[in-house]
Amino acid sequence: MYRIGLSVNLELRSGGSPLALLFLTLNVPFKELLTYECCEHRYLVADWSLECPACALRLICRRKMMVKEFAVSAPGKVILHGEHAVVHGKAALAVSLNLRTFLRIRPNKSGKVLIHLPNIGTRLSWDVVQLQALLSTLQVYKNDEPISPHPEEMEKLKEFAGIEKHSADTESLAVLTFLYLYLSICERDLPSLDIAVWSELPTGAGLGSSAAYSVCMAAALLTTSGQISCPLEYGTDTGRWTVDELNIINKWAFQGEKVIHGNPSGVDNAVGAWGGALRYRAGKITTLNRVPTLKILLTNTKVPRSTKILVAGVKNKILKFPAIMNPVLDSIDAIASLCEHVLDAMVETPSLEEYPVLEELFDINQHHLNVIGVGHPSLDRLCHVTASHGLHSKLTGAGGGGCGITLLRPDTDSSVVEAAKQDLKLCGFECWETNIGGPGVLLHSSSSLKAEVQQVFEGL
Ligand SMILES: Nc1ncnc2c1ncn2[C@@H]1O[C@H](COP(=O)(O)OP(=O)(O)O)[C@@H](O)[C@H]1O
Ligand SMILES: C[C@@](O)(CCOP(=O)(O)O)CC(=O)O
Ligand SMILES: [Mg+2]
């Protein structure tokens, strides 16, 4: 018999056969294997839901719901190469940014769910009873695997939230993502919650703010509903989940990205969950441990655009001109692979000799991105201004405005960078030098959040 530090309640879903069940009060630290006895069948499982192959007994083991306040954060990202092509199975190289989205979650006994989204000026609340009634009309139940948002279910959510059928505006997408993840993750045990989200990232600018939002929402709801642990040892400021739990967070965040992007590749939420630098291809995540410290100038053209619309536009272009577009996607794939090879070689023997290759890859890919229809005059302007200072740039993310990245060589004189930044600001752009490679999603005690973030949350 086992005893877990926290009591658990087992919900039984039987396959209909008579059950000789041993009630388990488990007492092992969550991370150890759990042994269940069901009928005469004994087997070891490491996860929290299982099916007895003999009697189809389903044991869903849930931790007690978290009742304390906590916070989570997730990084934005920069795609070095592969945006849009990655949606069609090609490789993308992406690195996390040191700009993060923060979420504070406060379970309460008000019988209401409250979301505060100050970056987009949204503050909404619903009665849990209303949401419970909505849940009964949805097929959001999952067989232990996150399920994709079904168009009919999304229409019901839109109707419930008073959102126009084809609306893709900022608030609509954020609210729908929250409602979908809240109902799908918390299921029958809908908690009263107060959730606040605030980001250092510009939203809708190509830096993966949607993914950081989805990763934070998934991590917070999974933790508070007891489906993953709360790895915050007493007295510590931050915690990180296990690999298995990060996979669950990433899978649910991907569902959130589907609400916002329509047809996401999954690269953005992967970077948000795992952090660092990675290659993403057709759902396969490969962590890149050997990436030199690249200096990047980030420029926001401040031209608003929607990833969902841009991604759909590329898909239509591929359908319209497959013989023209597919070779372009293959070329972008080759650029990402060559860039990864060059970066790996640079770690082996650091030298400036490889930079001209990296700069040329930026230029070639930027031209390809214009060909597939995601360029914008503001991005052309950005590339022209930096080129006049001998620097090479490309758009990052969905394009159509938003952000571009400029590669800064280690030997680039700071006066050149300052002159380029001045000229970019004269275009009305906002630019800043950034560090890449920050950690993925983190759990924080609310009191340990940096003062700027605490101030925002306290003011809500
Ligand atoms: N901090 C935030 N607060 C509320 N909604 C957010 C936040 N960050 C992102 N979002 C949601 O994500 C959308 C932007 O996603 P997207 O168009 O993919 O751009 P990005 O390049 O930033 O990922 C916003 O319109 C909004 O719905
Ligand atoms: C265009 C795309 O490749 C990246 C989108 O990035 P962002 O949402 O603009 O930050 C879409 C995707 O990979 O899901
Ligand atoms: Mg996005």
Automatic annotation (TrEMBL):
Substrates-to-products reaction catalysed: (R)-mevalonate + ATP = (R)-5-phosphomevalonate + ADP + H(+)
GO cellular component, one term: peroxisome
Organism placement in taxonomy: Eukaryota, Metazoa, Chordata, Craniata, Vertebrata
UniProt EC number: 2.7.1.36
Alphabetical UniProt keywords: ATP-binding, Cholesterol biosynthesis, Cholesterol metabolism, Cytoplasm, Kinase, Lipid biosynthesis, Lipid metabolism, Magnesium, Metal-binding, Nucleotide-binding, Peroxisome, Steroid biosynthesis, Steroid metabolism, Sterol biosynthesis, Sterol metabolism, Transferase
The protein's assembly and partners: Homodimer.
GO molecular function: ATP binding; metal ion binding; mevalonate kinase activity
Gene3D superfamilies per UniProt: 3.30.230.10, GHMP kinase, C-terminal domain (3.30.70.890)
Function: Catalyzes the phosphorylation of mevalonate to mevalonate 5-phosphate, a key step in isoprenoid and cholesterol biosynthesis.
Name used for this protein in its record: Mevalonate kinase
All residue ranges annotated as the GHMP kinase C-terminal domain in the record: 360-422
Pfam entry (one): GHMP_kinases_N
Positions of the GHMP kinase N-terminal domain: 189-271
Organism: Pleurodeles waltl
